[in-house]
Amino acid sequence: MLKFISFGSGSSGNCYFLATATDALLIDIGVGLRGLKKDCRDYGVSLSQIHHVLVTHDHADHIKSVGSFSGDYAVPVYATREVHVGINRNYCVTKKVTPELAMVLEKGKTIQIGDFSVTPFGVPHDSSDNVGYFIEAGGTNICLITDAGIVTDEMKQYISRARHLIIEANHDEEMVMGGPYPQFLKERILSPTGHLSNRICGQSVAENMTEGLKHVWLCHLSEENNHPELARKTVESVLRSYGIVPGADLELEVLKRNTPTGPYDLD
After folding, report:
1. For the sheet containing 15-19, what is the strand order?
2. HSE-CB for 66 with a 13 A CA cutoff
């Protein structure tokens, strides 16, 4: 059994919690540390049980508090070498990860981190580097894909292996094009190193999932260019066009931007 809580999912801050009966980790800490401490208390999570931090990439909404948390609790931070360099350069990270706690991951190489078998894989985004994670623990697995401009063949392979999947549904394409953002920002969002739309998210799930996929959570929704119900309905419509029925063939939910979602017990 694996426990999953999202402590925030969006451009204001991202942080995901995974725990077995004896170990726990965080993926990204882009939320404020004070708020994270409160949320953990509310959910009965002891920060002392969190022994590892994984980082996807070096944008502030994913790393803002990673150095403070790591330093306060002496927790190692795992990321690719390029992401560690990006964290050190990011002025939003006021307290950096100390060298002795900075652990280097290599994309495509599986590593055992406590109770968790972790495989990072490349995800295209306009950061120093970016990875998704395929994690096996507690007799199950979960795959996280966020901040992805496109879905590569490698990413598709991990979607096809997933029993539980967290995947970006950042924006509605029409809302982006018709919205108030300057043209350069619209082009960035829609580029191959930008973010996944609701439509592409749905297609990626539908075209690559297997019968083993049980639960899908939509993450990293834009506040300006999306809405939780719009994201859910768009992805559901795409899935149904492929003959996949949410609620019957799999569970489909949207992670909240600024407040926790969960907890979930994953088998």
Report:
1. 102-105, 77-80, 50-54, 24-27, 15-19, 2-8, 261-266
2. 41
Short-list 60, 67, 131, 140, CA closest to 99: 67
Distance CA 199, CA 210 (A): 19
Query: Can you tell me whether residue 203 is helix, strand or coil?
Result: helix
Please, what are the averages of pLDDT over each run of 10 residues along the chain (267 residues)? 97 96 97 96 95 98 97 97 97 94 98 98 98 97 98 98 98 96 96 98 98 98 97 98 97 97 97
What pLDDT is attached to residue 49?
A: 94
Q: Which amino acid is at 40?
A: C
Residues 97, 121 contacting (CB under 8 angstroms): no
The pLDDT of residue 81 is: 98
- Percent helix, strand and coil across the chain, each to the nearest 5: 30, 30, 40
Helix (H, G, I), strand (E, B) or coil at 144: strand
- SS3 label, residue 122: strand
CA separation for the pair 7, 157 (Å, rounded) = 27
Q: Are strands 15-19 and 164-168 parallel, antiparallel or unpaired?
A: unpaired
pTM over 0.85: yes
In the chain, DSSP assigns E strands to 2-8, 15-19, 24-27, 50-54, 77-80, 102-105, 111-113, 116-122, 131-137, 140-145, 164-168, 215-219, 251-254, 261-266
CB distance 29 to 36 below 8 Å? yes
CA distance 108 to 62: 21
* Predicted local distance difference test score (pLDDT) of residue 173: 97
